[in-house]
Amino acid sequence: MASTDTKHLKLRGNVWWYQRRIPKDLQDQFESQTTISESLGTGDIREARRQRNILNGRLEERQFNTPNTGRHRFLELVQEMSEHKSLNPEGWDEPYDLDKASKEGDDVFIHAYTTVNGRKDQRSKYTISIKEALNVWIRKFERDKTQDTVSKVKNAVDNFLKYLKVYDILLTDITKRQVHDYIEVLQTKYAKTTVQGQISRMRSIWTYCESLDEVSTASPFDGHSYTGGNNTNKKQPFTIEEIQWIKENVATNEPNKRLLLELGVFTGCRISELCNLQVKHVITDSDITAIYIETGKTDAAERIVPLTDDLGSRVKVLADNKLEDDLLLGFDNSSEMSRWFSRIKTENISTDSAKCFHSFRVMFSTAMQQSGVDELKAAAILGHKRGNTMTYGYYSRGYELQQLKEAYDQCVERIIW
């Protein structure tokens, strides 16, 4: 007798479709979608069943790897029951039907009930996951961090989950050994500082959740050893010939990209800092035009950087045609622009990864030093740590723009372009 198994299958014309309701605990992963409807591209019932079984298996895997199922409901129930208990210690549980919950297999309700009545504390089963912790971190810090920094934190979490081969994981389930092994894998492909950065970004999420009392155990991201030297990927300057090629060939017919390039050469700013510039960050004081770097890689990155007269006039013309909160250059993804420059560099100049857009920062810093610019002024323009003493570090308001422009002009004379 032929099998009549067509569960989650529907024949439309001559083609089988996969159709099923999405399990409730997975609906948040499908943007509130409640059903899946997908053509299997075959009229053969045997092939349709095979594909259906694969799709069912993937859903089951996602369910298995999705922590925090019912987390918010559990927390709400615990809060509600605890309030009832504080108001009526003897009869607080009268409104709750434990027998019904047991018959229906409502584990979330049962766990909340046993937690509040003191039989067994089940809170550890409903702690925050790393994806939820990431979202909490983003809501807190996205206004204070650059888009590039937020993107790097997201990528750090995504890459770690891909390594673990899970969709998500509870923060408290992450072990120090897992992080150790992940570091070992990363170190076969990346420089020491890159690996440290990946782990540091996840540590920042843990630290913030710890401040919210979401986690209380030791961080699995602390106390690890890293191999390789600090200068594994130290950026190198371009040669005179390479700079000449860049000047003559890169973005010659793309004004905004050309301006990005020349701002990198003549300010030493990081590409993320330049891409994050808004029109309101263009400053004019007397005959000096400068850009205000509001946020950057470090706390010291906030600074005012003077421009050459030519760059200043081009920046002002661009700014005059936009609103204050508009991106000055119109590039909202610094990583994409970094890849744009790297592709050109790799195809035409050098495959050395130590030569990149950041090399302009190295060259600008070198020009500062070779032209004899005072180190504190150089640090103020480049956004390096400065003023360690109480006098300079706490009380000083820094240099006037005119003083910075004088130091800047002294340096610009040595820039090769």
From TrEMBL:
Residues 132-210 form the Core-binding (CB) domain. Keywords: DNA integration, DNA recombination, DNA-binding. It holds the Pfam family Phage_integrase. It comes from the Bacteria. Residues 233-409 form the Tyr recombinase domain. Belongs to the 'phage' integrase family. This is Tyrosine-type recombinase/integrase.
